Amino acid sequence: MKQSFRIAQGDDVYLQVAVSLDGVSTPIGDAELFLTIKRNATDPDAAALVQLTRSGGGITATDDNNIAVAHIPAAATANAKLGRYVFDVRLAGVDAPDVQTLASGEILIEAAITQSTGS
User: Residue 13 belongs to what H/E stretch?
Assistant: First the structure.
């Protein structure tokens, strides 16, 4: 599913993704989830602006509702260059029979209007 959204530079963002395989809501079990944000799809993962994993704590998921939530922390985009990025959310691992891209699309990082964070 292609998606497009905007992020103000330096904002915390929570991205929810429904986990389904072939259109059927699917229990997540112990499967690994990845969220990767890059300038270009062909860039190596090592050059990603953000790469979060379930095992690393950046993505939470339960089988209660088959929804995964990725938290993109403010620090991850605070110094990012403004402009267009691409992203995907992938499922792989123990309970997932195949590697599946659950969501992908574009993110536009824009300048934040308020610079103060209150701290």
Answer: strand 13-18
Q: Is the dihedral of CA 80, 48, 70, 89 positive or negative?
A: positive
Q: Which residues contact 65 (CB under 8 A, 6 or more apart)?
A: none
Instruction: Pull the structure tokens for residue 14.
Output: 């929570």
Whether the CB-CB separation of 103 and 84 falls below 8 Å is answered with no
Question: Which residue ranges form the domains of the chain, and what is each CATH number?
Answer: 2-110 (2.60.40.10)
Q: Which two tokens stand for residue 85?
A: 């990025």
pTM here?
Answer: 0.86
pLDDT in tens, 68-81: 899 999 999 999 99
Q: Which of 42, 8, 31, 77 is nearest to 17 (CA)?
A: 31
Burial category of 13 from C-beta neighbours within 10 Å (exposed 0-12, middle 13-18, buried 19 and up)? middle
The CA distance from 40 to 90, in Å, is 17
